[in-house]
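Encode chain A's predicted structure.
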Amino acid sequence: MRLGVLAGGNGLGLDELIGQVREAAGAGLDSAYFSQVLSWDAVTLAALAAREVPGIAVGTAVTQTYPRHPLALAGQALTAQAASGNRFTLGIGPSHGPLIETHFGLSYDRPARHVREYLSALVPLLRGEQVDYHGETLTAAGRVMVPGAEPPPVLLAALGPVMLRMAGELADGAVTVWTGPETIARHVTPAVTRAAAAAGRPRPRVVAGVIMSVTADPEGVRRRVAESLGPAGNLPSYRAMLDRQGKSGVEETIVAGDEPAVEQAVRAYAEAGVTELVVSLFGDPHERARTLGLLGALRGPRGDAQGDAQ
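Encoded structure for chain A:
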């Protein structure tokens, strides 16, 4: 299992964000991802980070589909792939109805149909193919050529059964968030793997995003997570996944505790079929440093990851 970080934080400048990627690379981790919010552009950040920090893989987890036409995103993603020396993974997702409709003034009608058609246009565009796609929710006609850029892997944000099926059938795998290892083992990994097999695709990637803190005060960390992220748990797709797990809020999904407890949780994700764990470091500077240090120790030399954290 690969280990990476989700870089970011409120009010951080560019040098600080790139610094987080540099710290992850220095710890020996495999990857650094950026998420798309109403601030820095995630694809551009990934490209810049890759140019500044050699060796580490970069990606988005995730960037929104509705505000970006597939032709536009294909050009941007292939540019990032070329800039990174082909170390870029494109994670995409439709985001959430209240956000898309409120911030962008766009209709969130039929998100599953939108995602299916978006991937149907985007994936061949990333391969440099001529596309003439006319769907119910979008039209894409053209070709995107970026010399030196290989087609980047595409991950789909997926929590429910319909999105998980598309992640295996049309993309290279799924990226989840706030989903524990038991639910991943029982629900996520089997669904996306079955879909990929039925479509004749290679075994998919299962990328799990988790909030993590090596701390002497796990309950205090949970309280701070609840204060900062509590409302996000009421967005429909997150609420459905939390309900599936029997969790009342995001704070109940985090990994927090001393080194042995956190190490045990990391290994549980590996045993659940997760191929890459993407960690949001949470806590004060000391707690974040402890967490990164533990991840680096678990990772070991590149290609080892303590026996892939098994």
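The chain is about 45% helix and 20% strand.
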